[in-house]
Amino acid sequence: MHTTQALLDSLVDHKLAINLADTAQKNAALAAMADQLEADTDQILAANAKDMLAAQGKISSVMQDRLLLTAERIKEMADGIRTLIALPDPVGLTLEETRLDNGLIIEKRSQPFGVIGMIYESRPNVTSDAAALAIKSGNAVILRGGKETFASAKAIVTALKAGLVAAGLPAEVIELVEDTSRQSALELMTAKGKLDLLVPRGGAGLIQAVVEQATVPVIETGTGICRVYVDKAADLEMAVRVVTNAKTSRPSVCNAAEVLLVHQDLAATFLPELEGALGGQVAFRADEKAASYLQFTQPVQAEDFDTEFLDYILVVKVVANADEAIAHIAQHSTGHSEAVVTADTATAERFTQQVDAAAVYVNASTRFTDGGQFGLDCELGISTQKMHARGPMGLREMTTYKYIIRGNGQIRQ
Amino acid sequence: MHTTQALLDSLVDHKLAINLADTAQKNAALAAMADQLEADTDQILAANAKDMLAAQGKISSVMQDRLLLTAERIKEMADGIRTLIALPDPVGLTLEETRLDNGLIIEKRSQPFGVIGMIYESRPNVTSDAAALAIKSGNAVILRGGKETFASAKAIVTALKAGLVAAGLPAEVIELVEDTSRQSALELMTAKGKLDLLVPRGGAGLIQAVVEQATVPVIETGTGICRVYVDKAADLEMAVRVVTNAKTSRPSVCNAAEVLLVHQDLAATFLPELEGALGGQVAFRADEKAASYLQFTQPVQAEDFDTEFLDYILVVKVVANADEAIAHIAQHSTGHSEAVVTADTATAERFTQQVDAAAVYVNASTRFTDGGQFGLDCELGISTQKMHARGPMGLREMTTYKYIIRGNGQIRQ
């Protein structure tokens, strides 16, 4: 077994091979990685069967389904890698260029971070997605998945490494952490000088631990307590449609709505319509005013406003006006996605200006916060922080830049 | 006295007034802040005299000079604020706009971070510089200067606050931390959810403490151990000129060179010429090979390669070739500025590609790494990290962005 420190040192030693690889080399590697993944289908399924066996009785059937691989899912992972080949290379772009009076030429050029770390939970496909995004963006990568997917991830990484080698790149630029204890996560968080960026993907507990303990640069992702505010000037039919979509089209994802804020003037007409439209599919947790307009609801608890249920549960609160809605969001926002439904352009403008989140919607569902929907073609995650990257992160957000200054002996006066 | 927590809470309560201020309001505030600073010259000088008295015998005469204010220096601070007025407003810019097939319009719009914190040492002018940059970029700001400049900083902030009020903005968007103990620095570092960005400016010890303890987003600035590599294909006269400028034009700043790497084939001719040119102004600390070509030098110690001397000291090492120079830099770089002097374009290309620093120079002095020199017109600091901002940070780097999505009832399929 390799220690996490040994893997980090090896990545630092080998990173230039991928940091400096040209577009053709990287695309050849992606093609070979995808092919090898499919070629290794039997081995990957055998490894996955081990994970599934170990998981029996330990995790829910929903989680077991997330863990399960099939030949079709492996093909999807390979095709996912192949879609990256056609995307523009984010590395080596001249972002700006200035020629000074003294003749110096200052070029701001995009480049990979160097070594990226990813900490994530469940879903074996994240292993191939993250590795492929790292390769396309010229980064060496260290992956730390959950204990319950280790055998699957190991088999996947073995295939990806073979693909790298087939394309003439060293296998050592993609590594999987072998120690799945908490200790290895802490080693990644504190690998200052070795790890140039750490992206945790997972629940609030993981993100919180990383924020508190990391000394390496981190991009927080994922936790989304999204809200829809239905203003008094909302189109009723539109409001029902948007809230229904935001809540029920896929409740388990971070861009699903968790909280509904309703203007007091509209609550009496809107809430019964919404309850009728949802047809018992969603359990309400309503404040006192909202409850008076609903047939079936539980009373809301204070902590419900700060809980990411990821389930068919909707917290409902009646507010006096848009300002109360905006203040409520300022107090509880996780910085992900917030929406207003209103026909009043002044209210819409105030909402978009004052609400501080990655994505602020007017008359549309929060469910659109997604790299694919935003036209990024791929997505490493949704950043909920304000530094470097905000909202859906694509290949561009996996790069940094440097200034290259060319002269002929210039000195500063 | 206000506690740091009370100041942070007050900033959060008042931040929207500056976050949402338009360009005219912000420029009016800057003009009034500059005027008030000059109008308060007597009060500021009286406060500075207190700081100077308290400093006597405690800090070096160089540091005392950095601490000293004069009417002329206050005028310079005011003029520094006035130069920001003409600069473009970095807030509210449409960075990108996409119209999706479903009719959704996705706008990526620049916006202030919200509340920015600055921790810095000595130099009273940093107080007015940082506050003015924050106001221009639409951010509320909390300033924590050193204990030795507290009275001066307090008088300066009093003037700046009066300027804000004269322009119709709340005084509470610029605050000075009153507690100058380590505790208040720690409170800023861990003010998660209140402070949107923390920028430490100061020595390696301060930066290190912030990186280790901060849970809020941080931009590391300042520490620069810059190197010049003189290649075998260097023009001798140019190499002497560049090294002399990089080392001696202003040794106390972060973009001054600390280490000279010399190709072994050139060392015998170059080092004596350099020693002659420097005329005893610089003390060498040379490795064994380099020492054999120098008349006066001390032997280098291992830690000298990782020390920011900020003084007339030059560490000298002879290397076998460009690859050894590049490897040495990879091991010791602080990510600030690194230069090569060479007439060989292939070597120059390899150096710029492989050296990972904010600024990589070919045939020019490291002393150009500076916001003003890079055409930014102003500078909050030099970022030595790769996330969000790298190298000189101007107004643009003090902003983030959000996505504003406008629809007419779109839902996700």
Q: Rg of chain A to the nearest angstrom?
A: 24 Å
Low-confidence stretches of chain A: none
Chain pair sharing the greatest interface:
A-B, 64 and 64 residues
Total E-strand runs of chain A = 16
CATH architecture of the largest domain in chain A: 3-Layer(aba) Sandwich
CATH topology of the largest domain in chain A: Aldehyde Dehydrogenase, Chain A, domain 1
**Succession of helices and strands of chain A:** HHHHHEEEHEHEHEHEHEHEHEEHEHEEEE
Number of helices of chain A: 14
Write out the CATH superfamily name of the largest domain in chain A. Answer: Aldehyde Dehydrogenase, Chain A, domain 1
Shape by Cα distribution of chain A: globular
Secondary structure: helix percent of chain A: 40-55%
What is the total number of structural domains of chain A?
A: 2
Mean pLDDT of chain A: 94
Q: What proportion strand of chain A? A: 15-25%
Main pleated-sheet profile of chain A: 7 strands, parallel
CATH classification class of the largest domain in chain A? Alpha Beta
Spatial sequence of strands, sheet with the most strands of chain A: 10-9-11-8-7-12-13
| Class inferred from helices and paired strands of chain A | alpha/beta
N-C termini distance of chain A: 56 Å
Offer a concise description of the structure.
Two copies of one chain form a homodimer. The first copy, chain A, is an alpha/beta fold.
Task: Tell me what the structure shows.
Two copies of one chain form a homodimer. The first copy, chain A, is α/β, with parallel strands linked by helices. Chain A has two domains: about 240 residues, Aldehyde Dehydrogenase, Chain A, domain 1, CATH 3.40.605.10; about 140 residues, Aldehyde Dehydrogenase, Chain A, domain 2. Chain A is about 40% helix and about 20% strand. Chain A is built from 14 helices and 16 strands. In chain A, strands 10-9-11-8-7-12-13 form a seven-stranded parallel beta sheet. Chain A has a four-stranded parallel beta sheet with strand order 5-4-3-6, with helices on both faces. In chain A, helix 10 links the parallel strand 7 and strand 8. In chain A, helix 5 packs parallel to helix 6. At the A-B interface, helix 10, helix 14, strand 13 and strand 16 of A face helix 10, helix 14, strand 13 and strand 16 of B. Strand 13 of chain A pairs parallel with strand 16 of chain B.
